[in-house]
Specification:
single chain, 407 residues, alpha/beta, Beta Polymerase, domain 2, 5-stranded mixed β-sheet, two-stranded parallel sheet, 17 helices, 7 strands, 55% helix, 9% strand, transferase, RelA_SpoT, NT_sf, GTP pyrophosphokinase ywaC, GTP diphosphokinase activity
Length: 407
C-alpha cells in the first residue's frame, strides 16, 4: 500500500539541496489511501477505549477520568507538512516517515492517571512501539532542567490484535492494507493539553519568531502549568489517603457494631468508644457501599417497602450534608443509630404503606431517600422548620411524613 517515491539523482547534484520525493505524487497516493488511515484510526481508538474500560473495571482508574480524541490528518494538512522548508529535505518517503497521519489523544485528569495509562499502553503495545520516534517530554525537560510541555508520545504500528475488539464486518477494507501503518498516541493531562494547544497556536502557527520577552512569558506560563499539575496530583493523593483511612474506620466500626448487636450486655461506654468517621459527601458514599451497612438497609424492608440496597448513588449533594448537620448527625456512628432505631423504622414503614395507597406494588426507595425519611422523622420541631425553609428534602416527602397517617 505504501509506495516509495525516491527520485533519481545525479552524482553531481549536492545532496543537501535535493528534495527526495515528488510531493504531488505522494499527496495523490495519500488521497487514495486516506480511507484506510481512517479505518486504522477507528480501530486504534476502539482498542484504546477498551484498554481504558478494562483498567476501570480492574480498579486501576476511576470512571470518567479519561477522554480520547482521534483524527486522521487531512490531505491539506499533510501537504502543508511535507512542503514545509524544514521537512522537504528531511523526508525521502513521507508516507513511511510521517508518523502522525493517524493520531489519538488521551486526556487525563491527573499526572498519576496519565502515568497509569502510559504504562498500560507500553505493556500492551510493547512489540508495536517505535522507540526512536516515541517521546517522553517529561523526562526530556527534567534532564534539561527546563519547564514546558510534559506530555508523553508513543508512535506505534498497526497490530492484528487490535481487531479483537472490533467487528471485522465493520471494516470495508482488506486487513492486509493496514499492515505497516503507524499512529501517534499522545498521553497528557487536561492542563498539559490546554498548554500544548495555546503554545502551538502562538509559537508555531504565528509564522514568526517569538521575541525573547514573549519566550520568557511562555516559560513562566509553562512553569505555572507544571506547578498546577503537581499540586493537583498532591490533592488527589491526599484525598485518596483520607478516603482509605475513612474506609478503614467505617469497616472497623461496622465489625464492632455487629459484635455489640450480638452481645447486648456490653456497656454503652464501650459502644461510644468506637472510632467513627466524620460525615461529608465522600464518607457518606463509603458508608453506603459497606456490605454490613447494606445488610442494615435490607433489614428495614417489609411487605410495603423495597430498598435498592445494591444501587450506589453517584454523588452526595451539599444539601444532604446540610440536612445531616441540621439534625446534629456528624459521624457515621450517628447513621448507624439512625438505621437501628425501631421507632424511626416504624415511621419509615408507615411512610411506605401510605405511598402504596396511590400506586400498585411496593414503595421502592434508594438508600439516600431512606436516610432522608429517617432524618426528618428524627428531627425536632425547630429542626423540621429549618429543613423546610432551606428545602433540604422534597416537599411531597415532608407532607406525607407530617400527615396523621404516618405519625
Amino acid at each position: 500500500m505504501i509506495k516509495d517515491f525516491n527520485l533519481e539523482v545525479t552524482p553531481e547534484e549536492p545532496l543537501k539541496d535535493i528534495i527526495k520525493f515528488n510531493s504531488k505524487e505522494v499527496l495523490e497516493q495519500y488521497k487514495k489511501d486516506v480511507s484506510i488511515y481512517k479505518s486504522f484510526e477507528s480501530i486504534l481508538r476502539a482498542y484504546i477505549d477498551a484498554l481504558i474500560d478494562k483498567a476501570v473495571k480492574e480498579g486501576k482508574l476511576d470512571k470518567n477520568v479519561a477522554e480520547t480524541q482521534s483524527r486522521t490528518k487531512t490531505p491539506e494538512s499533510f501537504e502543508g507538512k511535507i512542503n514545509r522548508d524544514d521537512k522537504r529535505l528531511k523526508y525521502s518517503n513521507p508516507l513511511k516517515e510521517v508518523t502522525d497521519l493517524v493520531g489519538v489523544k488521551i486526556l487525563l485528569t491527573s499526572i498519576k492517571d496519565s502515568q497509569i495509562v502510559y504504562e498500560i499502553l507500553r505493556a500492551e503495545l510493547r512489540e508495536q512501539i517505535d522507540e526512536e520516534n516515541s517521546i517522553d517530554k517529561t523526562q526530556e525537560l527534567r534532564e534539561q532542567r527546563k519547564f514546558g510541555y510534559l506530555g508523553k508520545h508513543l508512535v506505534i504500528s498497526y497490530s492484528p490484535k487490535m481487531l479483537n475488539i472490533v467487528s471485522k464486518q465493520d471494516l470495508d477494507i482488506n486487513e492486509e492494507k493496514l499492515e505497516g501503518l503507524k499512529a501517534e498516541i499522545q498521553i497528557k493531562t487536561l492542563l498539559q493539553h490546554v498548554w500544548a494547544e495555546v503554545e502551538h497556536k502562538a509559537r508555531y502557527k504565528a509564522g514568526e519568531e517569538l521575541s525573547a520577552d514573549k519566550k520568557r512569558y511562555f516559560d513562566r506560563l509553562a512553569a505555572l502549568i507544571e506547578v498546577a499539575d503537581d499540586l493537583f496530583k498532591d490533592l488527589i493523593d491526599e484525598s485518596e489517603r483520607i478516603n482509605q483511612e475513612a474506609q478503614a474506620i467505617i469497616t472497623q466500626e461496622q465489625e464492632k457494631s455487629q459484635f455489640f448487636e450480638k452481645n447486648e450486655n456490653q456497656s454503652l461506654e464501650k459502644k461510644e468508644k468506637i472510632k467513627s468517621a466524620s460525615l461529608d459527601s465522600t464518607t457518606v458514599l463509603l458508608f453506603l457501599k459497606n456490605e454490613r451497612v447494606k445488610e442494615k438497609f435490607k433489614k428495614l424492608e417489609n411487605i410495603d417497602l423495597m430498598i435498592l440496597c445494591d444501587e450506589e448513588p453517584i454523588s452526595v449533594s451539599a444539601k444532604f450534608i446540610q440536612l445531616l448537620h441540621c439534625v446534629k448527625l456528624d459521624y457515621t456512628k450517628d447513621l448507624n443509630l439512625l438505621l437501628e432505631d425501631k421507632s424511626l423504622r416504624e415511621i419509615l414503614h408507615r411512610y411506605a404503606a401510605y405511598r402504596d395507597k396511590y400506586k400498585t406494588g411496593k414503595s421502592i426507595l434508594q438508600k439516600l431517600n431512606v436516610l432522608q425519611i429517617l432524618i426528618y422523622a428524627k428531627a425536632n420541631k425547630e429542626q423540621k422548620e429549618e429543613i423546610k425553609s432551606k428545602k433540604l428534602i422534597h416537599e411531597r416527602m415532608m407532607q406525607i411524613l407530617d400527615s396523621e397517617d404516618t405519625k
